[in-house]
Structure formats: C-alpha cells, structure tokens
Amino acid sequence: MDTYSINPASIIDEAVDLSMRLAGTDFPVSIFPNKIQRIISEVHECHNYPTDYIAAAILTAIAVGIGNTHLAQIKQGWVESPILYMALIGRPGANKSHPLSFAMKPFLDYDYQQNQVFEKALAKYDELMSMSRKERTDSGEEQFPQEPIRKRFLISDVTPEGLSLIHAQNKRGLCLWADELSAWFK
Question: For the whole model, what pTM was predicted?
Fold first, then answer.
C-alpha cells in the first residue's frame, strides 16, 4: 500500500505541477527538480514569460554551467560531450530574449567580473613587457611573464578566427549567445 503524507513541500509541488499544466506548456517541466520547477513557475507568474521559453533557457544555463566538465559514455569506447543547441522561435514581441537574459545573468555577471580581472592583469603584463628582461629580473619579476587569459562562459558576435582563439583559452567550453538565429550561420 502506498503511503502519501501531506506536508508543505508536497502541497507546493502539486500546486506548481497544476500551474504548469494550466499554463499549457509543451515543455516537459517535470524533468527538472522541484526547486527549479518552482523558479520556472514564479518567473512565469511574475513576468508573464512563456513557460517553454523559461524552461528552455534554464536548461541551456544548466548546460553552460556543466560545460566540458562531464562526458557521457554511450557505450564502451564512445564518449560524447553534452553539447546543447537551443533556439527560441516565436513571433516578434513573444518574450524570447528576456527568459534567456534571466537564465544567463549569473554567467553575464561572472564574465563581467572576469573581464575586470583580465584588464588589470593585462595592464600589469603590458607594463612588464615594456621593461627589458634585465629590468624585470632586477625588480624580482619573472623573466618571461605569461600573457593573461580571459576566462568566460558566453561569447557573441565573434569571427571564426576569434572563436578559435577564445575556445582554445577556455577549455571548459563556451556558449555562443546570439539574439538572432541568423548569427549562428555567419
């Protein structure tokens, strides 16, 4: 015999599930843990973003966070990276960009912070490189300083050459974030 206890968490979970069904979403929101389902529901209720778009954006954010840190072994000798391609398709004004901005905000904040760190390190590197090797050694600095690398999660509006360099410097992987689908084909 199945036992079912009523507690605040189960009531909230049932309410979120019912809310998602009433919202008419085709995205299987139930694949997410309950806390993420609640976030999706709250964002839908507060901002009126389409549930499908919020869920897809959060799934993308999860994939960006995982990056190349994990691999899936399909069978012996066959290993794949968990690469995700996602595009939100809808009419103009259908709130496609806002859910993505919401889900990617932690990565935007991180990239901004890392850019600040990179700018300081690059200024120091340029200062050191303007000195002669002897001056660097005499001042206690490395004889051959390493050029700083900018860590990031997101890129947009990049050339193939630039993408190659940035990707080589970010082994964790990158998310090409484009507001228009046509940018993927440039």
Answer: 0.78
DSSP 148: P
Cβ neighbours, 10 Å, residue 137: 12
- Which residues contact residue 80 at a Cβ distance below 8 angstroms, ignoring those fewer than 6 apart? 71, 72, 74
**pLDDT tens, position by position, 68-86:** 999 888 899 999 887 888 9
Q: How many independent structural domains does the chain possess?
A: 1
Please state, in angstroms and rounded to a whole number, the distance separating the CA atoms of residues 102 and 173: 21
- Token pair 């199945």 is found at 2
Mean pLDDT is lowest, of 24-28, 53-57, 62-66, 71-75, for 24-28
Task: Please give the pLDDT value at position 37.
Answer: 94
Q: Which residues pair with 79 in a beta bridge?
A: 73
Cβ-contact 169, 149 below 8 angstroms: yes
In 3D space, the residue among 148, 146, 145, 147 whose CA is nearest the CA of residue 115 turns out to be 148
Measured between alpha carbons, how far is 162 from 6 in angstroms, rounded to an integer? 56
Residue 38, domain member (yes or no): yes
Domain residue limits at 154: 8-185
